[in-house]
Amino acid sequence: MVNQNRLARVIKRMETKHIDHMLVTDPTSIDYLLDYLNYPHERTYVMAISTNGHHQLFFNNLFFVDHDLGIPITWFSDAQDSLGMIAEYLKKDGAKAIGVDKNMEARWLLPLMDALSDASFTVASEVVDLVRGVKDEEEIALMKKASKINDEAMGYMAKTLASGQYTEAEMDPLLLAFYKSKGASDHSFEPIIGYGENGANPHHMNDDSKLKPGDSIIVDQGCLYQGYCSDMTRTFFYKEVSDKQEYVYNLVLKAQLAAEAAIKPGVALADIDKIARDIITQGGYGKEFNHRLGHFIGRLCHEAGEVNTTSPIIAEEGMIFSIEPGVYIEGEFGVRIEDLVLVTHDGCQPLNSYPKELTVIGNE
């Protein structure tokens, strides 16, 4: 069913952008607005939104809808010209300034541009993306629950890793089983479990490595709970920690805490990135912090919107994004510490409560 509050927020942003019609093709964005998820693969799937109050869903009749979506549907078959139907609808509805989202394929967009040569087209993904970026109360509650499960799962991981008996790859199914025991349906992304030098690769693929004394252990994990994602990272040390590892860990933690402390409505996300990056650079490891500080999250683990040095986004109450500085020393080890944070009226609230102080496991 159409979520009228979310739709109204999209229309308000359309008006600000001087767009009279918006063509949404991202299945996750359509799900966000209709509470109906469909992956059409190569077939046309478009939600047309208008500032005049006329909205339409264009849908292949191969797909089944078992309830009223609260929006008129134009059905078509594989044998019909779906793009021609969309173009005719837009002409009749007086479309002049049309926004399209980043997911619209060129094979759809170019014929529409030809058919509607008197209209202007612009990529306007931010119209929906920025609405999705500011969570409503229902979304916040679900993401808090997903993060609570993730906190519990991190405790389970620390305890299980302390035994030293499991490879990185063997930890993955154990984590998934724990998530499901707590009511989550799946991983929100493939977890990254990096032992020792494997942790120096921010996107390491879990392998058959086993723990050795002195290894750092990066655990980057998240679960999917009722359609919403969690994500967090902690770094542990197995049996012992060197002076260098301790220094780097405390440097990353200092950057992470400083970034969180600076978040409040009205602050540029680029400035938040700079705060963390400057601390790590001043500590001697700027080149080893080789990724953005954070990303937005919601129905997808990585949603539109970044916390980086070029981000144009200004923090708003209700936004949820990650804060995850890291240092990666090739051939040695890596450290990353990540929380999800909710922007509040006067600051931010971390959604994760699992401890962040340096922890050595395996000596219990």
Shape: elongated
CATH topology of the largest domain: Creatine Amidinohydrolase
Number of strands: 20
Q: Specify Rg, calculated over alpha carbons.
A: 23 Å
State the end-to-end CA separation: 52 Å
Give the SSE string: HEHEEEHEHEHHHEEEEEEHHEEEEEEEE
Reported CATH architecture of the largest domain:
Alpha-Beta Complex
| Percent of residues in helices | 25-40%
Biggest sheet features: 6 strands, mixed
- The H-level CATH homologous superfamily of the largest domain, spelled out, is Creatinase/methionine aminopeptidase superfamily
Based on secondary structure, the structural category is alpha+beta
Number of domains: 2
Output the number of helix runs: 9
As a percent range, the share of strand residues is 15-25%
Poorly predicted spans: none
Question: Which helices and strands occur, and which strands form pairs?
Answer:
Blueprint (H helix, E strand, L loop, with lengths): L3 H13 L4 E4 L2 H8 L11 E5 L5 E5 L12 E4 L5 H11 L4 E4 L5 H10 L4 E4 L1 H9 L3 H25 L6 H14 L4 E2 L4 E4 L20 E6 L1 E3 L2 E2 L2 E7 L4 H20 L6 H14 L11 E3 L6 E5 L12 E4 L2 E4 L3 E4 L2 E5 L4 E3 L9 E2 L3
Parallel strand pairs: 1-5, 3-4, 5-6, 12-20
Antiparallel strand pairs: 1-2, 2-3, 7-10, 8-9, 9-12, 10-11, 13-14, 15-18, 16-17, 18-19
